[in-house]
TrEMBL record:
Superkingdom, taxonomy of origin: Bacteria
Pfam families registered for this protein in UniProt: ABC_tran
Listed name of the protein: ABC transporter ATP-binding protein
Residue span(s) of domain ABC transporter: 7-237
Keywords assigned: ATP-binding, Nucleotide-binding, Transport
Gene Ontology CC terms, in alphabetical order: membrane protein complex; plasma membrane
MF term (GO), any: ATP binding
Source organism of the structure: Jiangella aurantiaca
Length: 243
């Protein structure tokens, strides 16, 4: 394994069911996500994108191969250890702005840290820092319904990356947003990766995938292309201006 691999999929397969009705959701997927890297996953509906993200996040278990997060093979962990890895190492951002409505932005972001035993005041400080990093520090005391969709999605990114977490798994995080707001959210995700986080981004939109360092394509559960191409210069230029 490369030392800076944050996520590694080794010949991963996932079969649902068995016998003649078995569905091969994923076959023989090998992929390494390094520190600072953003990888976009594209592919038609049913090609296995969500399954890939679920396996990467330890929400589902492969039927073949291995998933390693920060060098740890998830299959070697007990349920409690797996839950701890999920809390400490990775965060999810979903399409549907899944913040808890009864909590303020800061409380939403602090929650995973408090669940991990960090004292409320320290968690709150970390949450404020995380919100500031994604450009919504002044909205800490607002409730989700007092924020725009783009602002809520920034809060979700802050929550995904609070504390020691360095891996964001984003499933169509711009799906519920208008196109300009969607771009803004990707710019924030790109900037957080440039600052040392790592992201796996499922998207249907090539224009959003252009923010990634690499784009991988799934078809019928198999990786059909992994170009390894560098992002175009304008992406680097744009991302450099964001902090
Ligand atoms: N729990 C399950 N039981 C049986 N089949 C499943 C299950 N979950 C997913 N599948 C199948 O696995 C394949 C991959 O599904 P997946 O949801 O990963 O695709 P996707 O690329 O994310 O699709 P979409 O873009 O529509 O969300 C599909 O054929 C799907 O029907």
């Amino acid at each position: 394994m490369t030392s800076d691999a944050v996520l590694e999929l080794r010949a991963v397969g996932r079969v649902h069911g068995d016998g003649p009705t078995a569905v091969h959701a994923l076959r023989d997927i090998s992929l390494t996500l390094r520190s600072g890297e953003l990888i976009a996953v594209m592919g038609p509906s049913g090609s296995g994108k969500s399954t890939l993200l679920h396996l990467a996040g330890g929400l589902d278990t492969p039927t073949d191969g291995a998933v390693l997060v920060e060098g740890t093979d998830l299959s070697t962990l007990s349920r409690a250890e797996l839950a701890a890895v999920r809390r400490r190492s990775l965060g999810y951002v979903f399409q549907d702005l899944n913040l808890i409505p009864a909590l303020t932005a800061a409380e939403n972001v602090a929650l995973p840290r408090e669940l991990d035993g960090v004292r409320a005041r320290a968690a709150r400080r970390e949450a404020q820092d995380a919100l500031t990093e994604v450009g919504v520090g002044e909205l800490a005391d607002r409730f989700p319904d007092e924020m725009s969709g783009g602002q809520q999605q920034r809060v979700a990114i802050a929550r995904a990356l609070i504390g020691p977490r360095r891996l964001v798994l984003a499933d169509e995080p711009t799906g519920a947003l208008d196109s300009q707001t969607g771009e803004d959210v990707l710019r924030v995700l790109r900037a957080r990766c440039d600052a040392g986080a790592s992201g796996l981004l499922v998207t249907h939109e090539a224009r959003h995938a252009a923010w990634a360092d690499r784009v991988v394509f799934l078809r019928d559960g198999a990786l059909v292309d992994d170009t390894g191409a560098a992002p175009p210069p304008e992406v680097l230029l744009t991302a450099d201006g964001v902090g």
